[in-house]
Specification:
Layout: H1 9-22, E1 26-27, E2 30-31, H2 36-44, E3 54-58, H3 65-81, E4 88-95, E5 103-107, H4 110-122, E6 126-127, E7 133-134, H5 139-153, E8 159-165, H6 172-197, E9 202-209, H7 215-221, E10 225-229, H8 235-245, H9 247-255, H10 259-270, H11 274-283, H12 285-308, H13 312-321, H14 328-336, E11 340-342, E12 347-348, E13 362-364, H15 367-379, H16 386-394
Parallel strand pairs: 3-9, 3-10, 4-8, 8-9, 10-12
Antiparallel strand pairs: 1-2, 4-5, 6-7, 11-13
The chain binds adenosine-5'-diphosphate and magnesium ion.
Magnesium ion (MG) binds next to helix 3.
């Protein structure tokens, strides 16, 4: 999809049309906000999503990857309904979150629906009207078959983006399976794209993952795939979302503080992570801190206690103060547990703000971890309260 010498005028107009429709997409937090930059980078950025290539798009858990592609799909469907020829097609395939590669749902435009349904049934499954896949269908195989059929049977020449959501890379086994899939598919896509390019089409694949462990396979498969990195919402977009659902009022009431202060606090704890905002909205700030942040961190610190013994609190303090310089064992476990994420060495499709919880190479996925870790190190105890975290964040 990338146009090497920069984006042509008509492409830019199309991308603007696509973006404008995205903002009427409804999420569980109201209107879809922001992400112009990301869409521009995905649709036309150099080396980000290219025909004949696989791109692994990774970013913090809950930063909005799935929602971005849902909004994009919605927008393309709206344009199709209006009779606007965008030239883009999006096929969305989601694996089941808890099983590595079984497909749970698959969608596409009406143009490609027939091929998609055929591919699903050739693997023994069935696809219902709303895109739910019944039966055990392997996502890797489905994508391979689909790409092959598009390359050989689909008459129209379009820019086709195939999205594989929920690509799992959370443990040794799924990380290995993911790497194998990347290596095999990278070669197949080059070939299928070449065939399809005779009909002036292009096929790109983008695999979404939240698992920070993918960093480990970057070097091994580096030149075969593109690596792209997406971050949480910008401060402005995060505030827009907070305002949209009145979350600052709710938090102000819960903590007995002013609206301005609660707005600031939300940024310092959620850092623009929409899923964190959603959970705070549903459960309240303290319950979110207790249930999602402190429980996870406490288990992590307990594990680290065995490694570091007496040195633990110093190591944690220095990791929180400068995550880039944290002890390597500490960093590895923080990545494995999705507390931290590697942010260097990938094309960034989002702007990354400069904040103390974000280093040059590594960052805390959400700042609540950063503040809570500091509060624990300060107290030299993993038993801290949500109030301790709030105090640390507002200091
Ligand atoms: N740009 C956005 N505008 C509004 N809400 C969003 C946006 N991005 C994400 N969300 C909300 O945040 C939640 C988490 O996002 P999701 O896409 O599931 O994250 P990821 O796939 O990166 O883990 C979604 O349920 C959605 O309601
Ligand atoms: Mg997701």
């Amino acid at each position: 999809m990338a146009v090497k010498e920069g984006i042509r005028r008509e492409d830019r107009d199309i991308v603007d049309e696509i973006i404008s429709r995205m903002h009427s997409y409804e999420t569980s937090l109201g209107r879809f906000v922001d992400r112009e930059e990301e869409v521009k980078n995905i649709a036309a950025g150099e080396n980000i999503v290219e025909g004949g290539r696989i791109t692994v798009l990774y970013g913090p858990k809950g930063c909005g990857k799935s929602t971005l592609f849902s909004a994009l799909r919605y927008s393309l469907a709206e344009l199709e309904r209006e009779g606007f020829e965008s030239g883009y097609e999006l096929v969305y395939v989601s694996a089941k979150p808890r099983v590595s590669w079984d497909v749970s749902s698959a969608y596409s435009s009406t143009d490609l629906w027939g091929l998609l349904a055929e591919a699903v049934s050739s693997l023994g499954g069935s696809l219902d009207q709303s895109g739910v896949v019944k039966g055990l269908v392997d996502a890797a195989k489905l994508i391979a078959i689909l790409i092959d059929r598009i390359a050989r049977k689909f008459e129209k020449g379009k820019n086709i983006l195939i999205v594989l959501d929920e690509a799992r890379a959370s443990g040794r086994e799924s990380l290995g399976a993911f790497r194998d899939w990347l290596e095999v598919s990278a070669n197949e896509i080059v070939e299928d794209n070449r065939v399809y390019s005779r009909r002036r089409g292009s096929i790109a694949v983008i695999a979404l993952t939240s698992d920070a462990l993918v960093e480990e396979i970057m070097d091994e498969v580096n030149d075969k795939v593109n690596w792209a990195f997406m971050w949480n919402l910008s401060r402005i977009a995060s505030e827009e979302l907070v305002n949209q659902i009145g979350l600052h009022y709710r938090v102000a009431r819960e903590l007995g503080i002013g609206y301005e202060e609660s707005g600031e606090l939300l940024w310092r704890l959620a850092g623009g992570n929409p899923r964190a905002l959603e959970r705070i909205w549903k459960r309240g700030l303290k319950r979110w801190l207790e249930g999602r942040v402190l429980t996870r961190l406490s288990k992590f610190v307990e594990k680290m206690q065995k490694t570091f013994g007496e040195r633990l609190w110093e190591e944690l303090w220095s990791a929180a103060s400068n995550i880039d310089d944290a002890d390597i064992d500490l960093k590895t476990v923080m990545l494995k547990r999705n507390i931290a994420i590697y942010i260097a060495a990938a094309d960034k499709i989002s702007e990354i703000p400069s904040e103390p919880w974000i280093g040059r190479e590594y960052a805390f996925q959400i700042p609540a971890y950063y503040h809570a870790l500091k509060a624990m190190a300060r107290k030299r105890s993993r038993r801290i309260s949500p109030e301790d975290v709030v105090r640390e964040a507002m200091a």
